[in-house]
Design goal:
This protein is of the alpha+beta class. It is built from nine helices and five strands. It folds into three domains: 39 residues, Helicase, Ruva Protein, domain 3 (Orthogonal Bundle); 99 residues, Elongation factor Ts, dimerisation domain (Tetrahydropterin Synthase, Chain A, 2-Layer Sandwich); 42 residues.
């Protein structure tokens, strides 16, 4: 029990009594407790997301073979947070993830509608006996296939390489709770030498 409280506290920077209460309400499941804390602080996060992010860092990660690397711009509100070791570590972790997972977009909002329409057409062709299925069922199947495409190509939808229980968006949301500032990925660029 104490170990779980410590872990939850270190991941969320929330007080011990609140961590204990969240764990009790969530059957001592840490991921559920984080979601519980996040949902209870959602108003705070939504308000933070409206704040201007004039600060941040640009970090790079170069893979040990020196054939692939990433430059990432991660934004926050204050210079105090931008200069902190924890914020820089967050940026470095996201840059490492980008090199390992090769996303094409930051979020699904960036994907051109024509591209999504093309993927929907491909998904429809992959469904066996699609003419025998109801329109509602077809839509659900196609949406499921499109969502799995989003998880492959969108950074924020991808499972975090260092903890596959959470997505990059959840990692950022957890960091917003910790830093009490709006944080978002502004830009990234992958450099690769093909061999």
């Amino acid at each position: 029990m104490l170990d779980k409280i410590k872990e939850l506290r270190s991941r969320t920077n929330v007080g011990v009594s609140i961590c204990k209460e969240a764990l009790e309400k969530c059957d001592y499941d840490i991921e559920k407790a984080i979601s519980y804390l996040r949902s209870n602080q959602m108003i705070k996060n939504e308000n933070l997301s409206k704040n201007k992010t004039k600060q941040g860092v640009v970090v790079s990660y170069i893979h040990h073979n020196q054939k692939v690397g990433c430059i990432l711009e991660l934004r926050c509100q204050t210079d105090f947070v931008a200069r902190s070791k924890e914020f820089k570590k967050l940026a470095e972790d996201i840059a490492l993830h980008i090199v390992a997972s090769n996303p094409q977009y930051i979020s699904k909002d960036e994907i051109p509608i024509e591209w999504i329409d093309g993927e929907r057409s491909i998904a429809k062709l992959q469904i066996k006996d699609f003419d025998k299925k109801s329109e509602e069922l077809l839509d659900k199947i196609i949406d499921g296939k499109i969502n799995s495409v989003f998880q492959r190509v969108c950074l924020l939808e991808q499972k975090f390489i260092k903890n596959e229980k959470i997505t990059i968006q959840q990692l950022i949301d957890d960091s917003i709770i910790i830093f009490q500032e709006n944080i978002f990925v502004k830009n990234f660029h992958i450099l690769r030498i093909d061999v």
